[in-house]
Amino acid sequence: MKTNLITKSKSITNPEYGCKPEDREITDYINNGVINLDKPSGPTSHEVDSWVKRILKLDKTGHGGTLDPKVTGILPVGLADATRAIQLLLTAPKEYVCLLTFHADVPESEIRRVFEEFTGKIFQLPPVKSAVKRELRTRNVYYSTIYEIKGRDVLFRIGCEAGTYVRTYCHNIGEALGVGAHMAELRRTQVGSFRERENLVTLQDVTDAYHFYIEDGDESFLREAIMPMERAADYLPKVVIKDSAVDAICHGADLASGGVAYLSDNIKKGDIVAIETLKGELVGAGNSLYFTDEILEAEGGFVVNTSKVFMKPGVYPRLWK
């Protein structure tokens, strides 16, 4: 979600410390990078994750949101130090393109009526084979757009809250129409700010890019295949902090109002916000204690409760006691 930044305190950054994410040296760029990977049908998300680790010869990788083996599409993968940042995507909105198959004929008008009813807040019971407790819960379906109805097959695109089970969604629509239905095919097309049409790469692309770097010293392909970890936080509202506040946040401190330089115009109390430097580096994340207007007016006290830290201490000078 793109938001406008509002000035709380005009600040400049010292070029001697840190750097813009895209200007990192290639080793740091890889170790603080994420891949917008196009998962193929067949392997598990964990297997794909492990292949990326082997291809790039890293000690650690992690993916943002598991896909079933037969499901294809966007599987964000965090590399090395960026594995913790990729966790920000677990709560990000998702989008899928799905092929649903009814078990009996249904009039098109009825199909469209029920799809409209299954938009907004819906109730879902997670499937038996799931990683969460099996109890009824609500999820938001932001949109559910039918592209084509052909016989018993319905092709549609769905945008939904994290934790929405599309397989269950299809089953429930079939139950609502009294004929039964199942999810025939599924492809994930968006996770937060990661989209299908932007920087989506395959395992082969990653393999080729790494070999160009190792064999020819050409790092340009790796820089195209890998994005800075900051992209994992693009969908979140932001609080941009002064250089003097960076190291304190790196040590786990909560963010005081005096350390804020700029902030998004749409922050609500309780929102998860990304804490970034003036150069655009991701320092951490936390829960906002106030609305945007209240943070702008605050003359003291803490404004963000820091819950995650991604930048290592020492990148910026220690200017706190």
Give a structural overview.
With 321 residues, this protein is an alpha+beta fold. It folds into three domains: 5-19 and 236-309, Archaeosine Trna-guanine Transglycosylase, Chain: A, domain 4 (Roll), CATH 2.30.130; 32-90 and 194-230, Pseudouridine synthase; 93-191, Alpha-Beta Plaits (2-Layer Sandwich). 22% of the residues lie in helices and 32% in strands. The protein contains eight helices and 17 strands. The strands form two sheets. Strands 2, 3, 4, 5, 6, 7, 8, 9, 10 and 11 form a ten-stranded mixed beta sheet that branches. A hairpin with a 5-residue loop joins strand 15 and strand 16 (282-288). Helix 2 (45-55) runs parallel beside helix 5. GO terms for molecular function: RNA binding; tRNA pseudouridine(55) synthase activity. It is an enzyme of class 5 (isomerase). The active site is at 68 (nucleophile). Residues 237-311 form the PUA domain. Could be responsible for synthesis of pseudouridine from uracil-55 in the psi GC loop of transfer RNAs.
Q: What's this, in brief?
A:
The chain is an alpha+beta fold.
Low-confidence runs of at least 5 consecutive residues: none
Structural domain count: 3
Percent of residues in helices comes to 10-25%
Tally the beta strands: 17
Which structural class fits the helix and strand makeup? alpha+beta
How far apart, in Å, are the first and last alpha carbons? 36 Å
Beta-strand content: 25-35%
Order of helices and strands: EHEHEEEHEEEHEEHHEEHEEEEHE
Using only C-alpha atoms, the radius of gyration works out to 22 Å
Which architecture of the largest domain would the CATH scheme give at its second level? 2-Layer Sandwich
